[in-house]
Amino acid sequence: MTIATHLRVYATVTGPTATFVGHDGHRESLVAKDAEDIRRAVMRRATDEARRVGSPLELVTSGDRGEHRLVIAGDGEVSRREPAVPGLYEPVSLATPTPVPAASTEPEQETAPRPTFIAPANPTRTDTRLRSVLRRLGFISTTSPAETDHL
């Protein structure tokens, strides 16, 4: 399965004016005599941009007539961009929020702590380095009380 990805450009159309944002983030204001002329100007600007980059672009327009997604090729060919997931581009109303399930009020059951493989922060050393050296040299022959308790 292959997913076709295109560079994306945006246009916000309001009456006879539009703001065109290129794939590189460059903003450009477009002005026309009426609403139909501005739509043609946006399509022409998107076609020029597709020709300049050498690949089709996804044009996302929003404004007076809703949101539309089109794929514009450099030769002027236009196709409608369908969402990969149905309903993906559906408008969402912010006025009525989606209900969120209430959090559980019951306390969680406490579980016994899991055993760890990490050594405790302050391990009790039963045999110090000095004591070990002295034992090897024969100066200490018995174990200390801590060593005896540990065994």
Keywords, please?
alpha+beta; 151 residues; elongated
Draw up the topology in text:
Blueprint: E1 7-14, E2 17-21, E3 27-31, H1 35-53, E4 57-63, E5 68-72, E6 78-80, H2 129-137, H3 145-150
Parallel strand pairs: 1-4
Antiparallel strand pairs: 1-2, 2-3, 4-5, 5-6
Helix content: 10-25%
**How many strand segments?**
6
Low-confidence stretches: none
Overall mean confidence score, pLDDT: 75
**Outline type:** elongated
Major β-sheet profile: 6 strands, mixed
Helix/strand-derived class?
alpha+beta
Strand order of the largest sheet: 3-2-1-4-5-6
SSE order, as H and E? EEEHEEEHH
Separate helix tally? 3
- Beta-strand percent range: 15-25%
Estimated radius of gyration: 36 Å
What's the quaternary structure here?
single chain
Give the termini distance in whole angstroms.
64 Å
Give a written overview of the molecule.
The chain has 3 helices and 6 strands. By secondary structure, the protein is of the alpha+beta class. Strands 3-2-1-4-5-6 form a 6-stranded mixed sheet, covered by helices on one side. The longest helix has 19 residues, at 35-53. The radius of gyration is 36 Å and the shape is elongated. The model has no long low-confidence stretch (mean pLDDT 75).
